[in-house]
Amino acid sequence: MTLPENASQDPVHRLVAEQYAAALERAQKRQGAGCCGGSSACGASAALAGYEAPSEGAEQAAAASFGCGNPLSFAEVLPGQTVIDLGSGAGYDLLLAAQKVGPEGRVIGIDMTDAMLEAARNHAKAAGAHQVQLRKGLIEAMPVAAEQADWVISNCVINLSPDKPKVFAEIARVLKTGGQFRISDIVAEDLPAWLKASPIAYAACVAGALPESLYLQGLRDAGLVDVAVVSRLVYDPEQIRALVETDFADAGLEPTLWNSLIGQVSGKVASVTVTGRKPEAAGCGCAPGCC
To answer: Residue 23 sits in a domain of what CATH number?
Structure first.
């Protein structure tokens, strides 16, 4: 496994890359064993996230989805537009975006993990999604020029970043003036210190999650406007178990710690969908790239 050069010394980036490369490998093994393996249903994360049944050609990408929401479920993405997906993983959201932008549009997936990029390329090729481009890089320093995207989407990824303000600033940079974002992510309130220090809990999108108010303020501080939560699902214990167990049950978490994790985060962790836009140049309040 190799990471972008500027990530090589960051322990959080390395942890996330290692855990998700391993999770992808487990998901691929489940597919090879007739899709389902152990106690986890193939694609359970995608089902819990609110996706419909995958279209033909997208089944394998759906089975390797580790998202917490469906950022394209109600997005008004139009044919010919450009969509950038942050932390594009195995590429399921890329395929959904490709359907919306059509053959004249463009979909750019950014991920830092070689295994995910390879999987996404294979899934895009199998689906005939020629408008999909994959780029290796960090969402804190996107390998994309400014003012490129009509839409920025992301699915349960920003909570994994060690520098979320940089991600929010990058979203503002790569969006066109008036461009929009739609992000599905995890937010959390009042987590115990031991849980925040757990590598498995971090990789499972819990330990690194911000409180909702700080998440929204971070986007506003980057110069983005009309920032709002349009959907919210507060996880109960069984939903937390389904979300985490599908992808990380065999990742080394001891049963006692596992049960304690579920008990202590119940009612404190939620999946939210956040929308907003980059303001128009006139009266933009000096958002990055528009003044």
So the answer is: 3.40.50.150
CB neighbours of 148 closer than 8 A, spacing ≥ 6?
82, 84, 108, 174, 176
Residue 135 lies in a domain: yes
pTM for the model stands at 0.77
Instruction: Tell me which H or E stretch contains 37.
Output: none
Other C-beta atoms within 10 Å of 120: how many?
A: 27
Domain limits for position 184? 5-277
Q: Report the candidate in 212, 175, 137, 140 with the shortest Cα–Cα distance to residue 287.
A: 175
> Is-contact 64 90, C-beta < 8 A?
yes
- The answer to the question of residue 52 being in a domain is yes
Q: Reduce the DSSP state of residue 189 to 3 states and report it.
A: coil
Number of domains making up the chain: 1
Structural contact between residues 153 and 86, judged by C-beta atoms closer than 8 angstroms: yes
pLDDT in tens, the chain (291 residues): 455 555 545 666 666 556 555 555 555 554 543 332 332 222 334 444 444 444 444 444 434 344 466 677 666 899 999 999 999 988 989 999 999 999 999 999 999 988 889 999 999 999 999 999 999 999 999 999 999 999 999 998 999 898 999 999 999 999 999 999 999 999 999 888 887 887 777 777 788 899 999 999 999 999 999 999 999 999 888 777 776 665 555 555 555 666 777 777 888 989 999 999 999 975 444 555 554
Please report whether residue 213 resides in a domain: yes
